[in-house]
Specification:
Layout (H helix, E strand, L loop, with lengths): L12 H7 L4 E4 L7 E7 L5 E6 L3 E4 L3 E7 L21 E5 L3 H7 L7 E5 L5 H4 L10 E5 L18 E9 L1 H7 L7 E9 L15 E6 L19 E5 L9 H10 L4 E2 L6 H4 L4 H4 L7 E4 L2 H10 L2 E7 L4 H16 L5 E6 L4 H6 L7 E6 L2 E7 L4 H8 L11
Length: 398
Amino acid sequence: MSDDQGHAPEPSDYEMRLWSREERVLRFPADRSVGELQIHAVGDDEPVSVTEAQGEVTVPAGHMVSLECADEEAAGDLAFLDDLPDDAFAGFAAMGVNGAGLRRLGRQKDLFQVILEEPQAGDEDLAVLGQLPDLEILALDDEGSTGAWLAELAATSLMLLELHRTETGAAALHGIGKIGTLYNLKIVTGLLETGRLHELGSLPDLEAMTLWADTPIAAEQLSFAATMPELKVLDLKRQDGADALSGADRLALLKTLPDVDVNGLWYPAEKLNGMTAADLEDREASGVRVIDDEGAFNRVLVESRFVLAYFTAAWCGPCKQFGPLIDRFADDYADRLSVAKIDIDVAPELADRFQIQGVPTVFLLEQGEIVGSQTGAMPRRDLVEFVEPLLGTGHAGE
């Protein structure tokens, strides 16, 4: 991994602490596996090995461990943690952890990522997650609490929170508003107390806010977002992922939040000023060409001067949010370029041709020659700022 100038970033204190560890042996129950272990070199996302959490497992020096508990049955009290050191894991995922299990989990002080499905716990039990100082990523189904415990996460390093609840009320929203380190928030809920959404306005570093709720959200209930200096992405859907905004509300938010993508849309001020709500209703993507092989891609290159090649994959999480943005972008730019959507598992020869290292990745080609590329999901504004300078600039042949 490198920064924008190609330099390797400085390792964090957390990474340095894990990197300095010597080889060690973790001891799990000998008679059964409690899940799957992924062993990573510190600073590397790809696992060095994947093995069952059973018996003695040797962890090499400078490596960290993530455990995904078996999902055939509830993980319960996690009693096996009593035989492990309090710094055994960097990542942990389990279903059906109860209060005793959460208290044991709270002793694993090196955890930076926790995923909990259907925990059998209330506010007091879940509050122990606030005892994890290096926790950066948390995703959980929380049906058994009021959500007041979320305020305890202010003592962590939490950057990404994904929360699934049947009802998200004042206590939960107030608690989330106390987590000043958040930069990415996703709430998926049935009922949402929209009158208390302003509690989220106290998050100074929040860049992306996703609210999927069956309770309608009016544009004026999000006016607080105009005071959030880092906000770049606002995604408002129903709980099932369907668009929740009328054209009028979408237009009002685009004008109120001129620097924010709203449901995958962003327009420069000069275009936005002349738009009406009708312009934003029932928008269909017409410019995306789904590519199955290299021959189909080459035909697109012949037919269009400019082609935006969008590399994706069915298993890619960020692609699921970036894809709808690409669809709308293709519709708006249909008279200036073609968009070719390429699944790297369907057309691996194209992934090899473009030396794809990760998805999503986009390339802009002019007359078949690459004139620019970007890797990673991005707000529409950034996609526009990437493409616009390259359109019609005559790069091909230079």
